[in-house]
Amino acid sequence: MTDIKKGLAGVVVDYTAVSKVNPETNSLLYRGYPVHELAATQPFEAVAYLLWNGELPTDAALADLRATERENRALPADVKAAIDLVPLDAHPMDEVRTAASLIGARDLAGNGSVLEAGGSVEDNLERSVRLFAVLPAIVAYGQRRRRGEEIVAPRDDLDYAANFLWMTFGEEADELVVDAFNQSMILYAEHSFNASTFTARVITSTTSDLYSAVVGAIGALKGALHGGANEAVLHIFDEIGSAENVNAWLDTALAEKRKIMGFGHRVYKRGDSRVPTMKAALDALVEHYDRPEVAALYDTLESEFVSRKGIYPNLDYPSGPAYNLIGFDTLTFTPLFVAARVTGWTAHIMEQAAANALIRPLSEYNGPDERHIEGYVVDAAVLAAAERPAEAQ
Ligand SMILES: CC(C)(COP(=O)(O)OP(=O)(O)OC[C@H]1O[C@@H](n2cnc3c(N)ncnc32)[C@H](O)[C@@H]1OP(=O)(O)O)[C@@H](O)C(=O)NCCC(=O)NCCS
């Protein structure tokens, strides 16, 4: 009997130097640095640079990256037009996926790289920076158009996180809010061979191009078991209403064998290493916006669920309510995850391309036994070829 690793659980498929998840010590390192240290000290741009290049940037390198990021921030008119074609009641992830696909097609067209679509390391680094720079405009415009609001042009005097909030809300955010948002971007940036990153690596392994890999990853991230979970947490909060309803709600949900979104993790079984940092940012936002009832619901559901099931929150649990307090619509949460994770995806795409092996696992067949089309007479030549010894074929 073949030992099937359903869902590839526990299977190590390759090396990576991008990040290390250690469920035993409950730690997550990006290129060796603990993620909570990065979140406490770095702007997201510096973490993006670290993921791509392996080292934190010097002041000059950070200034260079920031200059390129500013140059590529605005939403190109044709990409905006393509977004406008997406029905307003489609999921915004469909919008982000469509925009990323068009950006790729425009960029790759006419560069003669159809047969060598993978591109050089320099090409892929430039593409990664440009995608990273334009994604906030795509996400911000998505939320605005769903609210019937006009697009807001980027501001050159603001760094990545502050400008992202500016383009979304059309007003300058407080420093505390920018800091909480910046931390969430860093915490979401990278997480080893998760489903979307692995999707990007599979696509890259066929020597397809970086954009196709990112578009595939966006599709994988859309699902509720992966990126869609932070959105689902808010739906649960809306259903429960307030802390005093938690017990009754949980009784029913568990009796119905529902999965409680924002809890559990394939790798971490004793708690997600990113949660304490994001929870501290959420607490700061709760105080800033004076919304203690959010913290009460959060804490009650967490302690009840942990005591009943022994399953701990993952990053989506604190980030959902944090994004809600900042003012993001629930449907925008997963697109925000894309804007953050594109850094990790592209770092992995470049790593995969640099030491490539086609990713092609095997399967164990469990369909019907061999059978034949009634009345079909096999051609003698075909039969002879099929019966030839393997080494002669
Ligand atoms: C993330 C997730 C898919 C990991 O799943 P996994 O490693 O495949 O673990 P399983 O789904 O096999 O879960 C093992 C057991 O815990 C239970 N469980 C895991 N997460 C649960 C949750 N969030 N709510 C209720 N039960 C849960 C499962 O029902 C299963 O119970 P069983 O053994 O009685 O059937 C899963 O925990 C989940 O669906 N969580 C909710 C979605 C989410 O927050 N995703 C974001 C991940 S960062």
Structural account:
Keywords: Acyltransferase, Transferase, Tricarboxylic acid cycle. It comes from Microbacterium marmarense. It is a single chain. With 393 residues, this protein is mainly α. It has 2 domains: 28-228 and 328-354, Citrate Synthase, domain 1, CATH 1.10.580; 229-324, Cytochrome p450-Terp, domain 2 (Orthogonal Bundle), CATH 1.10.230.10. It is 57% helix and 3% strand. The chain has helices at 35-41, 44-53, 59-71, 77-85, 92-108, 121-146, 160-169, 175-188, 195-205, 210-221, 229-240, 246-255, 275-289, 292-309, 316-326, 333-354, 380-387; strands at residues 19-22, 27-30, 33-34. A 3-stranded antiparallel sheet has the order 1-2-3. The model has no long low-confidence stretch (mean pLDDT 93). The chain binds coenzyme A (COA). Coenzyme A (COA) binds at residues 225, 229, 259-266, 311, 314, 316. The site of coenzyme A has 13 residues, from loops.
Topology at a glance:
Layout: E1 19-22, E2 27-30, E3 33-34, H1 35-41, H2 44-53, H3 59-71, H4 77-85, H5 92-108, H6 121-146, H7 160-169, H8 175-188, H9 195-205, H10 210-221, H11 229-240, H12 246-255, H13 275-289, H14 292-309, H15 316-326, H16 333-354, H17 380-387
Antiparallel strand pairs: 1-2, 2-3
The structure holds coenzyme A.
The site of coenzyme A has 13 residues, from loops.
